[in-house]
Each structure stands twice: as structure tokens, then as C-alpha cells.
Design brief:
Helix content of chain A is 36%, strand content 29%. Chain A is of the alpha/beta class and 254 residues long. In chain B, strands 5, 6, 8, 10, 11, 13, 15, 16, 18, 20 and 22 form an eleven-stranded mixed sheet that branches. Chain B has a ten-stranded mixed sheet with strand order 4-3-7-9-12-14-17-19-21-23. The chains are: A alpha/beta (254), B alpha/beta (469). The complex binds adenosine-5'-triphosphate and magnesium ion (MG).
Chain lengths: 254, 469
């Protein structure tokens, strides 16, 4: 079965303020989408809502995964169904080292009997996977003994998000500005990481402001968000046009 | 990680929730406190005259002092409704096989025998008021290390005992130290000779088992010049319907260049008043560390102290307090700097939930002439809901202006974004809360030996379970 995430006429408000005003969007396993748009246009709101942040209220419309409406599920249930969100601003959890966090998380997602936290996945299997992913993403193993996002540089935080994605092996992942704040080397590492993980089993929606990551990751689809709606969708050439003409062009055209 | 996780998951929580029958007790004092009861206790134990007098004098102090009117609510304690002495068995066994069956069963459930094999260098297990089981590895004995219950310490090492007993915490120090001094029983007596390093921690387990019974253990630890030891006291307690008292006194003497660490995980049942006086003297270049967790009890009032008496001596206090429904943890630390170039660091972490209350109460004192003192105090409180409460009462008395002092206090809540982040990685809401709390107390947990760290996290998870969020 090919996983498909569909967002249908999505209206979302946060703290009483209407932000998404009818978003339509579809991503399938194996596809790479880019979502662009000016600051405040609602990209992160879309990402949070897809993942199930309790502060974001769906007023209208649906989020559908493989025909099932998931808009009422808590974030952990969505994660177990194969959704992943790489955060624009990853959250710090002091005193929790990355290994034990990944262990709990991995166990929750990959427990064969679907009951997370019951030690379903042997530690050896976890450790082997972790070593392999660290190697794949060229991350120093000593990194995993640090506390979750505490004192991480901007680039380290983003790498850590990609490492989590690698460990959890989602079917559909939304990457919210994973390229922001990265120097050119880090950008390459992260982009290569995404490319290594992408493939027939993973559908990706990359939220970005910049053309430069699209030099390394080639999206088949580009969407432009503006004032709570997707106002343009097209192929890779749309990104080039944006680069050239800026968002003013969208405003005019919308 | 692997064994830790596995142990976490297979853990039988019921062990925190049991009690044995009290039929086997060979002696139970009358309820209530009087000079007759105190004399009976002393006579039962065949104590020397000076100890009997010490006890009676302490009783006078106790009677003449008012109840403290600060800290927590002590008004419900009825001193006449408490047994002050109980003796479960006449034997004080040297080997495990000699320990009576009913008591062994209890220790089995506490996991002591296996633990002993692997991790312990000696076990002093206090069952009720009397230490019934003691073992000491041969090489410790050969090094001249003494690890006995306190009653045996008094019998076998009368000179050294008399020299130090009651010198760090005199009976008139406070009302509860006076109470303990009058009716004390059990506890540990430790002496480490000069230059001897005890590699493995010495461990003792304490339990309260009879309803309305007071437990008044008394611990005296003397670490001679250049020696070092780590003493661990772990408490698990069954649940009762009636209140009881635990009022211990722990005295530590760290001589020149000695190192002492004293670790406690206190988990009294939720009806126990835990009123403990712990104090250490640190002489020149000595280092004393109190690692102290208070999870259970109805009310805890405990402020481990270090008196820095010699130049360059150091004190470290790392504590955790958890207060659930109906509980009040009034805990903290005291650093009293009496000598130059002394150093103290106090780290306090507290978690309140379901209307529980934590208070940090700390004293930092720098005496005149104690120049170039450094002290860092940090207290972080975590409130898990709106009904819970936390306060800080820092007392600072600086009489020398060369001191370098820092004090930081934070009060935090668990943010929705933190929970969402963890849940987006597959953790349930409860697991997410637990993980954040474990992380919060990690500065404490990382100081514990592995098995205790696992136990600590289990206890916290157990305490937190039910009604999170
Ligand atoms: N709690 C809130 N209360 C009110 N307005 C909010 C709240 N959270 C977000 N918004 C508003 O919603 C709009 C969309 O925000 P969002 O973070 O989704 O934008 P974005 O497209 O991700 O922007 P950026 O490119 O800067 O990351 C913004 O105008 C923002 O100020
Ligand atoms: Mg954003």
C-alpha cells in the first residue's frame, strides 16, 4: 500500500485567531514536495496541525491518512501511524540524554505489538539501528550522550531532527525549515541525509524559504502559501520563478 | 540503558505496598513517653550508665522545648500515641542464614540478598528498631573498617563511641534531636581508619512496619584522616492508616582530607512524619556530600548540614523533593562556613503535584574571618499543576566581604510545547511528563549508583502515575 496524506479544505485557528483558510494539499510516499511562502503565511501552522498540536484547532476541513480522518488523534497516535514533523524550533528537554530519548521514542514507534513502552524492541536492535543511522548521517556517536537539544547549535538541532526522522522511519515527513540556520556544509549534510532517507518509502514535504536547499533536494512539486492558503502549485520551475520575482509576484497573481 | 529499561518495565511495584504481621515482636514498650520508658529502653539494651543519663537529660530537653512553629504542620502528632521501642528478635545475626524466616521474606521482597552479592560491601538492615542483620566483607574488616548497628558500636567500641557521640548534634540542638537522643535505637556506626578507602558503598535499609510505631535510628560516621567512604541509606515503607514518626539523627565527622558521601532515598509512607537532623563536621581539606531524596512521608523536615570547620573543606548537597497529594516536603540544606577558602554548593530540585507542597529552606552562613569563601546555591522547582505549591526560604548571613556567593532560584511548569514535541515522537502524554520530570531530577539521579538510579526513576514514575495532565 502507498501511504497518502491528504489535507482537505483545512481551516485552523490558534488562540481564537483564524490562520489557515482552506488549505488543500496531498503528499504520497515516494514524493518530495516543497512548500514555500512569506513569513507568517501559515506554513508552520499547517505543519503543527498535521502533527496534532493541541493549540491548533481545526474549524473546518479534514486531515486524511490513507482514507482515515486523523484530525482527532493525539500526536503520539499520529506518530505511530507513520507521520513525522521536523520542528522549525526543536524543544529542549534538560537532563534527558539523546540515547534514552531515542530509545523510548523508537520503542513507541516500532513495538511490534503496537503497545509502546513495553520493551517490544530489543535494545540490541535499537543500538544497531542507531549506529547505522549515525553513520549514514555522519554524526559523531558522542553526540547522543548530550541532553536533548540542550545547548545545541542551530545546525546541531536540525541534524538531531533528521536523526530522529532516520530512527523513526516515518512514511510521511514534514520538515519545517530544516535548512534554516545551517551553514553550507551543514546544509549539505542535512540535505544528503534527507536524500538518503527519501525513496519509495518516504514522502516528504519540505517547508523552506530558500532556493538553496532545492539545489540538493529535488522536489517534484512546489507549493506557494500565502495568507493561509496554497495559492500556487507547480513543478520545480515554480521555485525558480519565486527566486527570481519574489513573493510580490504571488500577491499580484493571487 | 538496556538493563535499566528492562528492569524498569519488569518491576513489581507492589513491593512498596506491603507489611508483615507484628506478632513476632519480642518486646514492645508501652505507648507514650516518660522517664520510665527511657530507662526501660536503656536497661533492655544493657547500656552503660553514661548513656542512660544522656538519654534522660535529652528527655528533659525534649519536654522543655516548644514545638517548632515554622516548617510544616506538626500539630497532629500525638507523642503519647507512639511506641518508642520495639525489638523484633533477640538475635543480631552475622550471616543471612541466621536471620528469622519472616524477616528474610521481607528482605527478599526488598531485593537485598541478591543486591548484597553483587554490589554491597556490607549490609546493615534495620528492621523496626533493631538491626537484625549485618554482614561485612572480610577485606573491610581486615582494613579495620567498622560497620555495625549503633547499639553494637556502643558495646564494642565504647571509647571512640563516647568520644564522638552527640558531639555534632547535641541533644539540645532541637526538639526532635532531643527526642531521638532520648529514645534512639539502631542506626549505623561506621568508623574508617586513616587512609582507608572503602571502594564499594556501605548500604543500609530501613523500614517502619508497625502502626503508630516511632523509629529513632541514630547514625554515627567517623572518617579518619585521608580516608573515604560512601554510605547509602535507602528507605521503602508500607502504607498505613495511622500516622507515625521517623526522627533520626545522623552525625558525620570528616577529619582532615577525608571524603564522605551520604546518599538517602527516603520513601516513607504518606502518613509518616519524617523529622530528621543530619549534620557533618568537615575539617581541613575534607569533603562532605549529602545526596538526599525525599519522596514519601506526610511531612518531611530535613536540612542536611555541613559545618566547614577546616580551611579548604568542601560541602556539596544535592537534593530532590517530591510532594504529591497531602504531602509537604520542607527540605533544604545548611552550609556553615567557619574557615577560610571553604566551598559549598547546594542544588535543590523539587517537584509538586496534585496539591502537594515543597519548600526549600536553606541557610548559608559565613563567619567573620572565614575569608575567600565560595558558595553556590541553586533551587529549581517544578509545579505539575495549578493546585500545587512551592516556596523558598533562603537565609543568608555573610560576615566576611571576601565571600563569593551566588543564588539562583527558578519555578517552572511543563510546557505544552515540550509535551507536544515528545508526543510527536510517539511517547504517550504520561510518558512525556515522566521523561521531563526524570530529566529535571537528573542532576540528582546521575549521582546515584546504577541500581539506585533505576529504583529512583521507578519510584518517581510510580508516584507520578495516575492523573497526570
Ligand atoms: N498563538 C498565536 N496567537 C495568535 N497568532 C498566532 C499564534 N501563533 C501563530 N500566530 C500567527 O499565525 C500566523 C502564521 O504563523 P506560522 O508560524 O504558521 O507562519 P510561517 O509561515 O511558518 O512563518 P515563518 O516563515 O516566519 O516561519 C502568523 O501571523 C502568526 O503571528
Ligand atoms: Mg514557520
Amino acid at each position: 500500500m502507498v501511504y497518502e496524506l491528504e489535507v482537505k479544505d483545512l481551516h485552523v485557528s490558534v488562540d481564537g485567531k483564524q490562520i489557515l483558510k482552506g488549505v488543500n494539499f496531498k503528499v504520497k510516499q515516494g514524493e518530495i514536495h516543497a512548500i514555500m511562502g512569506p513569513n507568517g503565511s501559515g506554513k508552520s501552522t499547517l505543519a503543527y496541525t498535521i502533527m496534532g498540536h493541541p493549540r491548533y484547532k481545526i474549524n473546518n476541513g479534514e486531515i486524511i491518512l490513507n482514507g482515515e480522518s486523523i484530525g482527532g488523534l493525539t500526536a503520539d497516535k499520529r506518530a505511530r501511524k507513520g507521520l513525522f514533523l521536523a520542528f522549525q524550533y526543536p524543544v529542549t528537554v534538560s537532563g534527558v540524554n539523546l540515547t534514552s530519548f531515542l530509545r523510548s521514542s523508537y520503542d513507541s514507534i516500532h513495538s511490534p505489538n503496537g503497545t509502546p513502552g513495553k520493551g517490544g524492541v530489543p535494545f540490541i536492535q535499537f543500538k544497531r539501528t542507531l549506529d547505522q543511522k549515525l553513520n549514514l548521517l555522519q554524526i559523531d556517536p558522542s553526540f547522543t550522550s548530550r541532553y536533548l537539544n540542550e545547548g545545541f547549535s542551530g545546525g546541531e538541532k536540525k541534524k538531531c531532527e533528521i536523526l530522529q526522522m532516520a530512527m523513526l522511519e516515518p512514511r510521511i515527513a514534514v520538515l519545517d525549515e530544516t535548512d534554516t540556520g545551517l551553514d553550507i556544509d551543514a546544509l549539505k549534510v542535512v540535505a544528503e541525509g534527507v536524500n538518503k532517507l527519501a525513496g519509495p518509502d518516504l514522502g516528504v514535504a519540505i517547508i523552506t524559504h530558500y532556493q538553496r536547499i532545492l539545489r540538493y533536494i529535488s522536489p517534484q512539486f512546489v507549493h506557494v502559501m500565502f495568507e493561509g492558503k496554497i495559492v500556487h502549485s507547480g513543478g520545480k520551475e515554480l521555485a525558480d520563478q519565486l527566486e527570481e520575482k519574489g513573493y510580490g509576484w504571488i500577491k499580484g497573481g493571487a | 540503558m538496556t538493563t535499566e529499561t528492562k528492569e524498569l518495565l519488569n518491576f513489581d511495584y507492589s513491593k512498596y505496598d506491603f507489611k508483615d504481621s507484628t506478632d513476632n515482636y519480642t518486646y514492645k514498650s508501652e505507648k507514650g513517653l516518660s522517664s520510665q520508658v527511657v530507662q526501660d529502653i536503656s536497661r533492655m539494651k544493657n547500656e552503660p550508665e553514661w548513656m542512660t543519663r544522656f538519654r534522660l537529660k535529652a528527655l528533659e530537653h525534649f519536654d522543655s522545648r516548644p514545638m517548632p512553629n515554622w516548617g510544616g504542620d506538626l500539630s497532629e502528632i500525638d507523642f503519647n500515641n507512639i511506641y518508642y521501642y520495639m525489638k523484633p528478635t533477640d538475635r543480631n545475626s552475622q550471616s543471612w542464614e541466621d536471620v528469622p524466616e519472616s524477616i528474610r521474606k521481607t528482605f527478599d521482597r526488598l531485593g537485598i540478598p541478591e543486591a548484597e552479592q553483587k554490589f554491597l560491601s556490607g549490609v546493615g538492615a534495620q528492621y523496626e528498631s533493631e538491626v537484625v542483620y549485618h554482614s561485612l566483607l572480610k577485606d573491610l574488616e581486615d582494613k579495620g573498617v567498622v560497620f555495625l548497628d549503633t547499639d553494637s558500636g556502643l558495646r564494642k567500641y565504647p571509647d571512640i563511641f563516647k568520644k564522638y557521640f552527640g558531639t555534632v548534634i547535641p541533644p539540645n540542638d532541637n526538639k526532635f534531636a532531643a527526642l531521638n537522643s532520648a529514645v534512639w535505637s539502631g542506626g549505623s556506626f561506621v568508623y574508617v581508619p586513616p587512609g582507608v578507602h572503602v571502594e564499594m558503598p556501605l548500604q543500609a535499609y530501613f523500614r517502619i512496619n508497625a502502626a503508630n510505631m516511632g523509629q529513632f535510628e541514630r547514625t554515627l560516621i567517623i572518617v579518619d584522616e585521608g580516608a573515604s567512604v560512601h554510605y547509602i541509606e535507602g528507605c521503602t515503607a508500607p502504607v498505613y492508616s495511622k500516622q507515625s514518626i521517623h526522627s533520626a539523627v545522623v552525625e558525620i565527622i570528616a577529619k582532615k582530607s577525608a571524603k564522605v558521601r551520604y546518599t538517602t532515598i527516603q520513601n516513607w509512607s504518606k502518613d509518616v512524619y519524617n523529622l530528621v537532623t543530619k549534620r557533618a563536621y568537615a575539617y581541613e581539606d575534607a569533603a562532605v556530600e549529602w545526596i538526599d531524596a525525599n519522596i514519601g512521608s506526610k511531612l518531611t523536615m530535613k536540612y542536611p548540614s555541613v559545618y566547614l570547620l577546616g580551611p579548604r573543606s568542601r560541602a556539596e548537597v544535592i537534593s530532590v523533593a517530591y510532594a504529591g497529594r497531602g504531602r509537604h516536603q520542607d527540605a533544604g540544606a545548611k552550609a556553615v562556613h567557619m574557615a577560610p577558602h571553604t566551598y559549598s554548593r547546594i542544588t535543590s530540585k523539587s517537584v509538586s503535584k496534585d496539591g502537594g507542597r515543597t519548600s526549600y529552606r536553606g541557610l548559608l552562613h559565613v563567619a567573620k574571618g572565614a575569608h575567600h569563601v565560595t558558595s553556590h546555591v541553586r533551587c529549581d522547582a517544578l509545579l505539575l499543576d495549578e493546585e500545587s505549591r512551592t516556596d523558598t526560604y533562603p537565609y543568608v548571613e555573610i560576615n566576611d566581604d571576601t565571600a563569593t556567593i551566588s543564588h539562583e532560584a527558578t519555578v517552572g511548569k511543563i510546557g505544552e510545547d515540550q509535551i507536544f514535541y515528545l508526543m510527536s515522537r510517539g511517547l504517550s502524554e504520561v510518558e512525556a511528563y515522566n521523561m521531563i520530570v526524570m530529566g529535571f531530577i537528573e542532576p540528582f539521579t546521575k549521582e546515584l549508583p546504577m541500581t539506585y538510579a533505576v529504583e529512583m526513576n521507578r519510584l518517581m514514575a510510580l508516584e507520578m502515575s495516575g492523573g497526570v495532565g
